[in-house]
Amino acid sequence: DGGITQSPKYLFRKEGQNVTLSCEQNLNHDAMYWYRQDPGQGLRLIYYSQIVNDFQKGDIAEGYSVSREKKESFPLTVTSAQKNPTAFYLCASSTSGRDYNEQFFGPGTRLTVL
Amino acid sequence: AQKITQTQPGMFVQEKEAVTLDCTYDTSDQSYGLFWYKQPSSGEMIFLIYQGSYDEQNATEGRYSLNFQKARKSANLVISASQLGDSAMYFCAMREAYTGGFKTIFGAGTRLFVKA
Predict the structure, then answer these.
(1) B1 vs B69, more confident
(2) Which CA distances in Å does B53 have to A60, B28, B36, B63?
(3) Which of A1, B84, B103, B109 has its CA 20 to 30 A from that of B16?
(4) Which of A56, A102, A105 sits opposite B44 (nearest CB)?
C-alpha cells in the first residue's frame, strides 16, 4: 500500500535534548513537508523540500532542522533551541508543481517535552 | 497578514441538514489551488475537495461542494446531509508560489459539531 509513515506516534523528550522525527513515503512524490499543529490551531509550515538535497525554511523553522538525502525520506530534528516543542507534528508529501496536487499526510507524531 | 481566514471557530449543525463553512483567502497570484481537509480527533488529515483558480465550475465530491467566488476571494465548503461522522475540524488551504517552489498555507480551522 502506498502512503506516508511517521514514527514514533508518541514521543517524550527531556528539556535540552535533540530528537528526530521520522517521515517516509512510498508514493514517489518529489515534494515533502513538515507542519506543526498546536491544540485548537491550524497547521504551520516548518520546512519543505521540492527535490532531493534541497529544502526551504517555512514560517516557523527556528529550532528545527531537516535533511533530504533520499526521495522517500524527510526526517525532522527538533533541537534544544526550539523553546516550546510540545506539539503535534505532521509530515506530508505531494507531486511538485502548481496544479492539482493534494498533499497526502502521515498519521502524525505527538511530541511532549517533560 | 492572514492568507487564509476561517471566521467560524465552531459550528453546530443538526444531523441530515446542510452546513456551510466559510473560507476567504488573499493572494496576488492568478493561478492557485484551494483545498479543504478534514481532521477527526485521531489527528489524521483527510483531503476532501479541490478547486483550481481557473476552474469555472464549482467542485463537487459526493456530499461536499465548494462554493467558489473568485472576485470575493472566497471558497466556502458546503456539506449536505450532515452525518454524525462529519464532526471534526475542517481546514481550508491554498497552494501558491513561494521561494523555491510552491507551498500550501492552512487556515486556523473550523470545528464542526453534528447533533443527533
Answers:
(1) B69
(2) 27, 12, 14, 21
(3) B109
(4) A105
Scan for cell 472576485, then name that residue.
Answer: B71
State the smallest CA–CA distance between residue B87 and chain A in angstroms: 14
Q: How far apart are CA A38 and CA A32, in angstroms?
A: 20
Is B42's pLDDT higher than 70?
yes
**For chain A, what is the HEC assignment?**
CCCEEEECCEEEECCCCCEEEEEEECCCCCEEEEEEECCCCCEEEEEEEEECCEEEECCCCCCEEECCCECCECCEEECCCCCCCCEEEEEEEECCCCCCCCCEECCCEEEEEC
Q: What's phi and psi for A11, nearest 5 deg?
A: -145, 130
Residues in chain B within 8 Å Cβ distance of A108: 43-44
Q: Is the distance from CB of B91 to CB of B106 less than 8 angstroms?
A: yes
A43-51 and A31-37: which strand pairing?
Answer: antiparallel
Statement: residue B1 has pLDDT above 60: no
Beta carbon pairs, A and B, within 8 Å: 71
User: What's the N-to-C CA distance of chain B in angstroms?
Assistant: 38
Report whether A111 contacts A22 (CB < 8 A): no
